[in-house]
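debug: dumping io for the single-chain case to check the tokenizer round-trip. Nothing else runs in this session.
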Amino acid sequence: MVSQSLAHIALIVRDYDEAIAWFTDKLGFTLVADEHQPEQGKRWVLVAPPGAGENAASLLLARAATPEQAAFTPR
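debug: decoded output
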């Protein structure tokens, strides 16, 4: 049987810094990565819940790229 796991779960956000602050300050998540991706004009932002192990799934915070996507972000 093949072992399966999740690495990242994408969550669409309005603003990277606002989302990072909410997850880290309010929920105690750890900022795992925040890397600028110049070729895409985006950032690779990963946060993980407190106590998550090295191989645990993390949230990939993805900035909304269109108004349609932005409509699904929390207000």
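debug: round-trip ok. The helical segments are 16-26, 67-70.
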